[in-house]
Amino acid sequence: MSRFDSAEHLYDWQRSGRFPRIHDDIYNLIRSEVSPADGPVLDLGSSTGLLARRLHRAQFVVHAVEADATAIDAGRTAGTYGPNMPVRHWMLTPGQMPEFGEFLRENGVTVVVARRVLPELDNAGVTPELLGATLAKAGVRHTFLEGRAPRQGSRHRLSSVNDEIAGFDERWQATTFDGKHRVYLTLKE
User: Fold this and answer.
1) What is the per-residue burial (b if ≥16 Cβ within 10 Å, else e) of 11-24?
2) Rounded Cα gap, residues 155 and 100, in angstroms
């Protein structure tokens, strides 16, 4: 069960109620830095919704955005997404960033979790610079990034969380590193 979107993760959660260990580190980083009182969370690139559901269980107000309709359907079928855990099917592009910023403002989102999604966004033209600027303008104050696990021979320009941070908007600063590919960013005051 090495893939992040493995159906086995959903099956195991349905059967046991336990969330997959693959989210433990990012979840623990989020919980160590922010609380539900810090405001609503957006799980950007939420896949099947297991991390979003885990944050919701911890009393966060959570919104989810996912580009893969199949992953959303799997999450809805499994019960991670539902009436109290909304998900929006959205393939973000540069032209949609004003609408995305408005979505964040309308929902009062102040915390964003982007787990292993920045390379895919970058491929669609939503660079870390553009994403970081949009988040800052929309009122987001806390961003959690989990980059891809470091691999030798990776050819993507965002092959590590350090590449993602380097490209993130200048209004953000890395506050806490957790391991080789997780970081908590805060908006510079």
Assistant:
1) ebbeeeeebbebbe
2) 29
Q: Could you give the strand order of the β-sheet that contains 172-178, starting from the edge strand earlier in sequence? A: 87-89, 62-66, 41-44, 111-115, 142-146, 182-187, 172-178
Which residues on neighbouring strands pair with residue 63, listed in sequence order? 42
pTM: 0.91
Q: In terms of Cα–Cα distance, which of 76, 87, 89 is closest to 10?
A: 76
The model's pLDDT over 150-182, given as tens digits with 9 standing for 90+, comes to: 666 667 667 677 888 888 888 999 999 998 889
> Which H/E stretch holds residue 146?
strand 142-146
Q: What is the pLDDT of residues 76-117, one digit of tens each?
A: 999 999 888 999 999 999 999 999 999 999 999 999 999 989
The residues pairing with 146 across neighbouring beta strands, listed in sequence order, are 115, 182
d(CA 137, CA 169): 11
**In the block, which residue shows the tokens 């320009």?**
157
What are the backbone dihedrals phi and psi of residue 38, each rounded to the nearest 5 degrees, phi first? Answer: -75, -10
Record the tokens describing residue 144, joined without a space. Answer: 């959690």
